Amino acid sequence: MKILFTKPTLLTEEKSALLMTELTQVLAYKGVEDMSTHLLLELDNEVVDIESIQQLFALFERWEIDKSPLESLLQLVDRNK
What we know:
This protein has 3 helices and 3 strands. The radius of gyration is 12 Å and the shape is globular. 42% of the residues lie in helices and 22% in strands. The relative contact order is 0.22. A 3-stranded antiparallel β-sheet has the order 1-3-2, with helices on one face. By secondary structure, it is an alpha+beta fold. It has helices at residues 13-24, 50-62, 71-79; strands at 2-6, 29-35, 38-43. The mean pLDDT is 90.
């Protein structure tokens, strides 16, 4: 599963590296592609669970990122119950 979301504004090089590091710590992390103003996060469909989703919601909250792209994750977990 891939999730496209807007990068936080005014990211310094240092903060951008920190964000990327935090994304790699998400349990279902598979990869991330920097697309200038957006990031394309790839998650392992076999590993995505409620804990991964909670990690992402917390990360998006901390970095003030719009959480609406995460809604598809909630639907995926609901379907797999």
